[in-house]
Design brief:
2 copies of one chain form a homodimer. Chain A is an alpha/beta fold and about 270 residues long. In chain A, about 30% of the residues lie in helices and about 15% in strands. Chain A folds into 2 domains: about 5-60 and about 210-270, 3-Layer(aba) Sandwich (Rossmann fold), CATH 3.40.50; about 90-190, HAD superfamily/HAD-like (Rossmann fold), CATH 3.40.50.1000. The first copy, chain A, is built from 8 helices and 13 strands. In chain A, the strands form 3 sheets. In chain A, strands 1-13-12-11-2-3-4 form a 7-stranded mixed beta sheet, sandwiched between helices. In chain A, α4 (about 135-150) crosses α5 (about 175-185) and α6 (about 195-205) crosses α7 (about 220-230). The radius of gyration of chain A is 19 Å and the shape is globular. The interface of A and B includes residues 176 and 184 of A. Chains A, B: Phosphatase that hydrolyzes imidodiphosphate, 3-phosphohistidine and 6-phospholysine. Has broad substrate specificity and can also hydrolyze inorganic diphosphate, but with lower efficiency. Chains A, B: It comes from Capitella teleta.
Chain lengths: ~270, ~270
């Protein structure tokens, strides 16, 4: 398939105003199983060689930045932890700024992020993609914790519905956050894509304004829609969990589609 | 606390038009742990002696009618299985009438109700209060089953948010149904309180119209709100999962409050 036109015409014709890239990781750089997507290593290297700042915005919440980098570099990327923006460190900053004490309903692999944070007498519940840790006992404990709070605060590291893992659709954290919202009559504060604050923190790190960057992702809502709502261009790749029906999405129209990240980078560099 | 006034004034002053009672079980007759609530045995006996028809509308979905009756009679009640209206038999009828094949996400204790129902190649998912069976693996299997259906049908035996068990608030099936609704973009068909059809089937059994009966329960939404939407009076007891903040509920105003079932029955019999 050729690169399709976005609503503003060929997005890459505006390459001159684009000074930086935000990239999703899973489904753009590599598949959930850990295999690099064709051309994605070359694409990231090409951006670096051209001096284009890049940050990686991911809703990966099962492990730390260091683990993410280790997994990526093992298959041939060359990333640094400070370039990765997952929700956990943002949640950590958020709860420390507000003086909150978390009850964690997250994957064991992500708990290191909160190791030195006071977790006694919780004043908020934090939900990550806990996977098998979403047991009835753990859901109940989080629920009871919320119900015991004078002002219940529920924080969720994204609202993804499901993802593809080992070829099977698998429940993401969003449905479990919805369950707690319904049980307690509260609305979760989402920290992670598609929250505006989340994209801005990555942009801030490379000193760019939203209109000076493009977000490239496979999730039509969290990546593309979220970025656009924040003022960035949003381009969808036809890899990862992309499905042809995304191109008729009810509420989100990307600024463009590309077959994969490498095509996006080549088009950008050619028209810059 | 004294019996509080409902929006229509003292509900029991309308006792002359009330000919029958629908009673919730858990939180009204006994606590989830199995202890009879003070005065509740006396209250049921008093209604029987006065010749007032009574049916028991419960969203208990962890076991069969016979088990429920055994548990109640062990602590001093004198109930018959045909007086009990739980959701499982209604769900069974519903799926057989429609020729559906269920994927069961229910408690092992309730599976006997579906023992002779074809469960191959499921065409619907049935959610009961599965409690510890609400594991991530079981939730994921139900989700994958729904996603594999051409026309996903999700059936839930109620939408209760939580109940009180051994003195602790405990997640009910509603939040887990919400999780599946959100993940799959479907709306559950609710069979059980607060569905109108469910109250009507119990009323039908005693030959009464909605305006001739009162529902007494501890759940402000499922018991009281559901009954009122069906045309019954709805009175909330201050036992079970009742919490003082229920008296300022955003959408449901009961026809009255009573400290417990015995107070309701005494007020009713006095003003009849």
């Amino acid at each position: 398939m050729a690169a399709a036109l976005g609503p503003k015409g060929d997005w890459f014709l505006q390459s001159k105003s684009i000074k930086g890239f935000l990239l999703d990781i899973t489904g753009v750089l590599y598949e959930n199983g850990g295999v690099a997507i064709e051309g994605s290593i070359e694409a990231v290297n090409a951006l670096r060689e051209a001096g284009i700042p890049v940050r990686f915005c991911t809703n990966e919440t099962q492990c730390t930045k260091e683990h993410i980098v280790t997994k990526l570099n093992r298959v041939g990327f060359n990333l640094q932890p400070h370039e990765i923006f997952p929700p956990a460190p943002a949640v950590r900053s958020f709860i420390l700024e507000r003086g909150l004490r978390p009850h964690l309903l997250i994957h064991d692999g992500a708990k290191a992020e909160f190791a030195d944070v006071d977790q006694s007498n919780p004043t908020c519940v934090v939900v990550g993609d806990a996977e098998d840790f979403f047991s009835y006992a753990n859901m109940n404990a989080a629920f009871q914790s919320l119900m015991a709070m004078e002002n219940p605060v529920l924080i969720s590291m994204g609202m993804g519905k499901f993802y593809s893992s080992k070829g099977k659709l698998t429940l993401d954290l969003g449905p479990f956050t919805k369950a707690l919202e319904f049980a307690c009559g509260v609305e979760a504060e989402v920290i992670g894509k598609p929250s505006k604050q989340f994209f801005l923190s990555a942009l801030n790190d490379i000193g760019l304004k939203p209109e000076e960057a493009v977000m490239i992702g496979d999730d039509i809502v969290s990546d593309v829609g979220g970025a656009q709502a924040c003022g960035l261009m949003g381009v969808q790749v036809r890899t990862g969990k992309y499905r042809p029906k995304d191109e008729n999405h009810a509420t989100v129209t990307p600024d463009g589609y590309v077959d994969n990240l490498l095509q996006a980078v080549k088009l950008y560099l050619k028209h810059r």
